[in-house]
Amino acid sequence: FIRRLQSGNLLLVNNDSDAKRAKMTAWLSKDDGRTWPYALTLDPVDHDVAYPDGKQAPDGSIYIIHDFARREGGYVFMHRVTEDDIVAGKLVTPTSWLHRLVGKSKPV
User: Fold this and answer.
1) pLDDT of residue 11
2) In angstroms, how far is the first alpha carbon of the chain from the final one?
């Protein structure tokens, strides 16, 4: 998942693992995608996290969803972060939060 934010910066949400769908992470680029020096781990699970999507609200909050264990349980988690959180590599905004269960469906 990639999106240009209101600031003009690019947001990439992807797995931070070469071998498997693991460690869902938000990356921020301030140079139009040439480098991605800022990262915030959204979900440190080392397996079965995939299919991120997201949207930025008018107040600048970034809402990101992804699924977990699609074949076993079909969980959907949501995170609310800001660019400041991603730059810091941790939650620094009082209204930010990680890893809330927002849905569960039948396994596929």
Assistant:
1) 98
2) 21
